[in-house]
Amino acid sequence: MSSLSVKHLLGIEPLTREDIELIFRTADEFKEVINRPIKKVPSLRDITVANLFFENSTRTRLSFELAEKRLSADVVNFSASSSSVKKGETLIDTVNNILAMKIDMVVMRHPDPGAALFLSENVNTIIVNAGDGTHEHPTQALLDAYSIRERLDEDFTDRRVAIIGDILHSRVALSNIHCLLKLGAEVQVCGPPTLIPKHIESMGVSISYSLEETLMWADVVNMLRIQLERQGDGNVVKYFPSLREYSMKYGLTAEKLAGAGKPLVVMHPGPINRGVEVTSEVADSNQAIILDQVENGVAVRMAVLYLLASQIERN
Ligand code: CP
User: Which residue's CA is the closest to the ligand 1 atom numbered 5?
Assistant: First the structure.
């Protein structure tokens, strides 16, 4: 197979296992490119990509922009905080005005779940979802799985991946669950009962409320950020008594990691709240692949953009 089964990347749920494996094989080639002295290829020359960020981002935004530039695309950036959205313009009007400037692809982060799907149904361009509210963050899941594949030598069968923390508000968790299950891994979610969505086991994952038990079970642990900004007004703790109590029960320390009695791989999608989800000692240890995830994000996003752009007719 040399092309994706989808026109847009709206989430991991619509992808097949073959799509994901094609993205990984393509990312392998781009990873080689970005480690050369000349890191650029002409694959997206004459293609223009607009990065529309209606919500804050450091990693995803920079990573997409770098991926586009490494592929020789023309790039325009849009940030909601400095745009006419503030003057009441709708999402469709904003994007149609941008498309009138001859844009071929749109990468969009938006606070509303379903925003990427809505856009794909209402404007005529290729959409890449860079995170839509609490719904999906497909390129994060792809780079996470790609980083696990790199560390654990390709095969996901019988690999056990635990996703730990704020599952309820996490688009990273949902996309990771879809991605890892499609690849054949076993997935467990772990966290306080208030942060585990009801009925999540119907997706095919197991549930644990004990970090220590999960560490014994897993080969890989993905430590999610506590998303205070999605817990209600004023960034206040609402789902557990205090951040201190959360970190005592669910924060990963070097002692708890050693208690697993095996060399677990530690991941975090970022941004990290050091001392809450993981201590600095763990985040900066050899077991953590957090910066590998960031590095792989560029190659994976290059692969996604390249494969989706192959549908664009170019004379
Ligand atoms: N992991 C992630 O999505 O980070 P940003 O919010 O900084 O893009």
Answer: 57
End-to-end CA distance of the chain: 24
Per-residue pLDDT of 220-256, as tens digits, reads 999 999 887 776 666 777 788 888 999 999 999 999 9
| Tokens 């995170």 -> residue | 131
Residue 203: partners with Cβ closer than 8 Å, 6 or more residues away: 177, 181
Give the Å distances, CA to CA, from 130 to 51, 53, 86, 109, 275: 9, 8, 21, 5, 27
Domains of the chain: 17-136+295-309 (3.40.50.1370), 138-290 (3.40.50.1370)
* DSSP β-bridge partners for residue 274: 278
To the query of whether residue 36 is one of the catalytic residues in this protein, the response is no
| Annotation marks residue 59 as catalytic | yes
Dihedral angle of Cα 31, 33, 37, 41, to the nearest 10 degrees:
-140
Q: In sequence order, what are the residues at sequence separation of 6 or more whose Cβ sits closer than 8 angstroms to the Cβ of residue 30?
A: 41, 70, 298, 299, 302, 303, 306
Neighbours of 108 (CB within 10 A): 23
Query: Cβ(279) to ligand 1 under 6 A?
Result: no
Token couple for 110: 């938006």
269 lines ligand 1 (CB under 6 A): yes
Whether pTM exceeds 0.90: yes
Could you tell me the distance, in angstroms and rounded to a whole number, from the CA of residue 314 to the centre of ligand 1?
32
Distances from the Cα of 15 to the Cα of 20, 105, 141, angstroms = 7, 19, 12
Closest CA to 156 of 3, 11, 17, 7: 17
Q: 36-72: per-residue pLDDT in tens? A: 999 999 999 999 999 999 999 999 999 999 999 999 9
| DSSP-assigned states of every residue in 261-309 | -S--EEE--S---BTTTB-HHHHTSTTB-HHHHHHHHHHHHHHHHHHHH
Which whole number is the average pLDDT over 155-164? 93
At 129, give phi and psi (nearest 5°). Answer: -80, 115
Say how far apart CA 5 and CA 239 lie, in whole Å.
Answer: 39
